[in-house]
């Protein structure tokens, strides 16, 4: 069983798109070590997005679009609430939304939900973070001091010793963001096993290839994918669906860092 945490250099960096692509790749492709080929096989993959903000109330439940997408690709018979147990309606920082509702978030609570996901005994459990690496969760609810201990989502990753994949949002400033995030992951004693260059924005970054080369040299981990922008309509005028885009992205991810 492998447990992977997906983080990124910032918010809106493509974590859900990449997570869905990874799940799709893992549920459909596995490396055959005997023939050294990729053969079709369905791995059991569970998804977990512990926290979301920006949800729609549907039949009395807060539904996050990212969690809904993950549920379409994971194959461990999970409900959207199983995938995303802590959800807030407002599209704001989760710890601020929690404070406004007087509903504390704790690492212990996240871990309780995570342990439920682990009981599914999936081949791979993929955990999608929120925001960047050091996402605040707010102070420990049990502490009423003037300077209570602050919690971060990265504390949950540390507590469970998850391997990390870093998504780099390829835009101006990404070199600094990527290096600082990688250094923070390593300082927390965790293993960052690979990074993905997300180039899916409609406007291509200036000197994109040079920046990818620079990051490849600066980050001492493998670049396992470069995901480029895919238009909603192809050259023949056919509509390209989200599932189509996920399929293309999945086929561009090197799964060898996961042993497949």
UniProtKB/TrEMBL annotation:
HAMAP family in the cross-refs: BioD
Protein name, UniProt field: ATP-dependent dethiobiotin synthetase BioD
EC number of the protein: 6.3.3.3
A Pfam cross-reference name: AAA_26
Reactions listed under catalytic activity: (7R,8S)-7,8-diammoniononanoate + CO2 + ATP = (4R,5S)-dethiobiotin + ADP + phosphate + 3 H(+)
Coiled coil: none
Role of this protein: Catalyzes a mechanistically unusual reaction, the ATP-dependent insertion of CO2 between the N7 and N8 nitrogen atoms of 7,8-diaminopelargonic acid (DAPA, also called 7,8-diammoniononanoate) to form a ureido ring.
Subcellular compartments: Cytoplasm
Binding site for Mg(2+): 16, 66, 128
Enzyme's top EC category: ligase
Record text on subunit structure and interactions: Homodimer.
GO biological process per UniProt: biotin biosynthetic process
Binding annotation for ATP: 12-17, 66, 128-131, 198-199
Active site: 49
A single GO cellular-component term on record: cytosol
Record pathway: Cofactor biosynthesis; biotin biosynthesis; biotin from 7,8-diaminononanoate: step 1/2
Family: Belongs to the dethiobiotin synthetase family.
């Amino acid at each position: 069983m492998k447990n992977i945490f997906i983080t990124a250099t910032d918010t809106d960096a493509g974590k859900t798109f990449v997570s869905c692509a990874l799940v799709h790749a893992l549920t459909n492709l596995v490396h055959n070590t005997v023939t050294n080929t990729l053969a079709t096989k369905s791995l059991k993959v569970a998804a977990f997005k512990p926290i979301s903000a920006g949800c729609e109330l549907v039949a009395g439940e807060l539904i996050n679009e990212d969690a809904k997408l993950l549920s379409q690709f994971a194959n461990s018979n999970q409900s959207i609430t199983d995938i995303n147990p802590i959800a807030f309606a407002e599209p704001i920082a989760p710890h601020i939304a929690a404070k406004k509702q007087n509903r504390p978030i704790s690492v212990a609570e996240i871990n309780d939900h995570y342990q439920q996901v682990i009981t599914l005994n999936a081949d791979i459990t993929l955990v999608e973070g929120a925001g960047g690496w050091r996402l605040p969760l707010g102070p420990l609810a049990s502490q009423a001091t003037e300077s209570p201990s602050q919690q971060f989502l990265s504390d949950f990753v540390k507590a469970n010793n998850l391997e990390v994949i870093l998504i780099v949002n390829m835009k101006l400033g990404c070199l600094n963001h990527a290096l600082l995030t990688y250094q923070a992951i390593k300082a927390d004693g965790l293993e960052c096993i690979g990074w993905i260059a997300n180039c899916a924005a409609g406007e291509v970054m200036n000197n994109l290839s040079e920046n990818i080369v620079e990051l490849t040299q600066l980050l001492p981990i493998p670049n396992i994918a470069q995901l480029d922008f895919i238009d909603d309509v192809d050259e023949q005028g056919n509509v390209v669906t989200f599932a189509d885009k996920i399929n293309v992205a999945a086929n561009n991810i090197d799964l060898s860092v996961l042993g497949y």
